[in-house]
Amino acid sequence: MKLQLRRQITIALKNEPGQLAKACDALARKGVNIDAISILDTIEQGVIRLLTSDYATAREILTAQGCHVVEAEVLEIEAKNHPGTLAKLARSLADAGINIEYAYGTEGSSSELMRICLRVSDPAKALNVLGG
User: Fold this and answer.
1) How far apart are CA 73 and CA 123, in angstroms?
2) Cα 78 to Cα 109: distance, rounded to the nearest angstrom
3) Measuring CA to CA, how many Å separate 46 from each of 9, 55, 62, 91, 123?
4) CA nearest 40: which of 20, 56, 22?
5) From residue 5, how far is each of 16, 75, 105 by CA, in Å?
6) How far is CA 32 from the centre of its chain?
7) In whole angstroms, what is the distance from residue 53 CA to residue 50 CA?
8) Any idea what DSSP says for residue 108?
9) DSSP letter for each residue of 27-70
10) Which helix (H) or strand (E) holds 99?
């Protein structure tokens, strides 16, 4: 299992065609890759969470576009893609008194791996619990 703490950027965009494309185009023009993304929609806006190859540059670009940028530390986990893996991770965190505030993920670089991003109540402690 591979663990690391990452800086996540969250922005809100109007829930209308072209808004996500505009933000992604701006990042791409400056060579910033999107490593992970989560989108939660509401009637008027979408809440977009991003892990990028360069969060400082991404923050600068999105702020220049008029986005209000919120940063958070998240735990990125690459683990075996098998039934029960997430249950074990969640149980380990719960037993240590660490709350999972939200999560998003995808299949990893191979079908044998999954990649999960967790916003937890205590990222440093979670890294220690899962890494130990």
Assistant:
1) 7
2) 9
3) 14, 20, 15, 31, 25
4) 20
5) 32, 5, 15
6) 15
7) 10
8) -
9) HHHTT--EEEEEEEE-SSEEEEEEEES-HHHHHHHHHHTTPPPE
10) none
Cβ–Cβ < 8 Å for 79, 116: yes
Q: What tokens were used for 18?
A: 């072209």
Is residue 8 packed enough to be buried (19+ CB in 10 Å), middle (13-18) or exposed (0-12)? buried
Phi and psi dihedrals of 20, rounded to 5? Answer: -65, -40
Identity (one letter) of the amino acid at 129? V
Q: Are 58 and 9 in contact (CB under 8 A)?
A: yes
Amino acid at the residue 36: A
Task: Return per-residue pLDDT of the chain as tens, 132 residues.
Answer: 999 999 999 999 999 999 999 999 999 999 999 999 999 988 889 999 999 999 999 999 999 999 999 999 999 999 999 999 999 999 999 999 999 999 999 876 677 899 999 999 999 999 999 996
Overall size of the chain counted in residues: 132
The single residue listed with the structure tokens 């008194």 is 97
